[in-house]
Each structure stands twice: as C-alpha cells, then as structure tokens.
Amino acid sequence: MRRLRFTALLAMLVSAGSWATAQASATTNDVEAASISTVPARSWSVDATANELAALHHKDSYLRYRMHTVNEKGDRVRDVIESRDGTVARLILLDGKPLTEEEDNAERQRLNDMLASPAAFAKHIRNGDSERRIADRLAPLMPDAMLYSYTPGQPQTGNNNGRLEVVLDYKPNPKFVPPNTEAQALTGLEGRVWIDAQTRHIVRMEGTVSHPVNFGWGMLAHIYPGGKLTLDQTTAGGDRWIFTHFSMTMSVRALMVKTLNVHSNVETSDYQTLPGPMSYQDAIHRLLDTPLPGR
C-alpha cells in the first residue's frame, strides 16, 4: 500500500513540473511582447519539459544544500550532497531542534552502514532511480496531455528577480489518451505556469486537481478533487536550476481501502556548487565530518 501511494503521488508531482533541478538552455537574449504572441503556447511547454528532463539527471553539475521537509512524518532538515553515484543526505534538525545524541548516533550509524555495505547504498539509490524512471516517462507527455493558453498581458515579471516570464494557463486535453497507468495523473490537473522567457525554465507552477483521478480503474488508487500543488524554482549559480519550494495537499484512497490525507511542504536553501563529482563514500564522509547546527 505504501508503494502504491508513493507512485500515485509521485506521478502528480511530476505533472506539476517535477521537483528536480535543471540546466539552462540557450534562447534569445531579448524577448518582446509582440514576438511572444506569435509563438504557439504549447512550444513553451515543449522547451520547459526538455529542461525538466535535464533536471532529473543534472549532468556535470553537483550541489550541496539543505532540504527542509514538513509532512506526516514530522519536521526535518537534512544536509544534502549530490555525488556521482547518487544523492546522500544527513538529518541535522528534527522538529526544529538539534538532534539528541541518541538521534545523531542513529543517523551516523545509518550512513556508516552504507559505507560498510554497497548493497545498503544500492537499496537507497534504487528508490531514487524508480522516481527518475517514472519522471522520464511522464514528463515528455506534458505538452500533449495539457491544453495551454496565454494569460492576459505578456510577458510578465514577479517570480524570478524581475526577469521576464511567459505565463500560461493549462488544463487537461480531452483528446489525450494515457499510455500507461501512471499517466492517468496527467488527466486531472489544471492551473498556471510561469516560464523564464529567456532560458525557458519553469519558475513557478500551480496546480489543482480539478476532477477525480483513478489508477487501475480506482482499484490501485483514487485521487480526490481539490488537491493543490505548488512548485517554485530558481538558479543555484551559473546554469544550474533547483527547486526552492514544493507543496502538496491532497486526499488519496489507496487500494479501495484507506483514505490518506497528504500534506507535504519541502524547501531548499544554502546552495553550494561542488567543484566536481565525488564518490558517495566521500560525500558521506563529508557529511559526517560536518558539525551539527548548535554544536
């Protein structure tokens, strides 16, 4: 049940633009309002989607940052490092407080277990790989799964340090036929997306579950209308983009049995560009060697 619930929510997350980071793609330096109106709205989605796919893999780009997550499991802050083998993280704050010695020892043991056992690390990475594969399958469907239209007044500013943005409204395309069960998530979402007019990266995306979404005719999962999704992204230095905020509130019934009310809020901060790739072992050692906040 837990796995099915995760897959359903991840699919909705991907439909909201993914919460990964992206590399820049070059376009014109100056965007005129008149020229924007001549570009089909869908083309902005095509380019933004390509950037979101690049975000999933962030080739030749590695960051260290903090991730603050608040959900049904509590309030957690983690120190995150992207290694060449995959992302590793260390819990550094729990419910807004420094870890106790017992909590820190448990976290250190978890990381040391991954150092001692490549199989333990491989299990950790498999979860991320599964998410990436789902995103790889769903993201390319976005331009055709939705109908896009310009909001009044183009371009606009306000979400990205004064840079010009193209703002689109989107709604489900009634002619879209989901090619797999996961793609059903794309049939119930509508909202608005802000795209950097120069780099064509998603700056902000808002979505609402406008009507029920069923997975496996509702036998695997059912997402109720009224759910809300919000994504914000920014540059983390150079051509690297990263999400700064992702929030999700929705109700999901899993396996026709249990209804789960999901409230999740994730924020990232304190981005550091790493000079190059490092092994996951070196990344874990760096995490373990960093003093905890307040110590």
Please explain how this structure is put together.
- There is one protein chain.
- This protein has helices spanning 2-15, 33-36, 41-57, 101-116, 118-138, 142-145, 280-289, and strands at residues 22-23, 63-71, 74-83, 86-94, 97-98, 146-150, 165-172, 189-196, 202-209, 213-215, 221-223, 228-235, 240-254, 258-273.
- By secondary structure, it is α+β, with helices and mostly antiparallel strands.
- It has one domain (2-289).
- Strands 1, 2, 3, 4, 5, 6, 7, 8, 9, 10, 11, 12, 13 and 14 form a 14-stranded antiparallel β-sheet that branches.
In short:
The protein is of the alpha+beta class and 295 residues long.
Radius of gyration: 20 Å
Mean pLDDT: 80
Strand content: 35-45%
**Shape descriptor:** globular
Share of residues in helices: 25-40%
